[in-house]
Amino acid sequence: MTKRTNVPIIKLNNDIERKRMQLPEFRQALEDKLSAQSVARVLASAYDFQVAQNNNRTPRARYGTVKMTKEADAMWETVVSNILAGMSANSDRDILQRLADDGFIAMVEEGLEEINFTTEF
Predict the structure, then answer these.
(1) pTM of the entire predicted model
(2) Taking the C-alpha atoms of 93, 97, 98 and 101 in order, what is their torsion angle to the nearest 10 degrees?
(3) CB-based contact 86:111 (threshold 8 Å)
(4) Helices first, then strands: H and E counts in the chain
(5) Which of helix, strand or coil describes residue 55?
(6) CA gyration radius for the chain?
(7) pLDDT in tens, 5-60
């Protein structure tokens, strides 16, 4: 009996099945194209948010630096996941072509500049 995984499968026109681009490979491709400053700014903003959240916790429940860093990275992962979800109707080839487009990357970087993590509604 073979083990089944929950990997999304798409059918191509010629009925050959293949896996869809997964988040880790998309994240790597996106981070390779974005400026280091854009990624660092979002991560710093997420970390600052985690510090503010941590300050509101009781002293006994406060996170350590490593936990806050992991939480900030998870927030960045959510941002990347949302970008991928917005592109999910495209084929892997189209996604990679969009990532190679300087105009698209500039648009993503502009969007990243507008990200502000708050607890206000």
Answers:
(1) 0.79
(2) 180
(3) no
(4) 5, 2
(5) helix
(6) 18
(7) 555 555 545 444 455 789 999 999 999 999 999 999 999 999 999 999 999 999 99
CB 120, CB 49: distance < 8 Å:
no
Q: Which two tokens stand for residue 89?
A: 């109707």
Domain assignments of the chain as residue spans, ordered by start: 22-113
How many residues belong to the chain? 121
Can you read off the two tokens belonging to residue 90? 């495209």
Tokens of 85: 């979800």
Task: Please name the amino acid found at residue 37.
Answer: Q
Distance between CA atoms of residues 87 and 58, nearest Å:
40
Paired tokens of 14: 């010629």
Q: 8: which 2 tokens? A: 């999304």
Please give the Cα distance from 92 to 97 (Å, whole number). 9
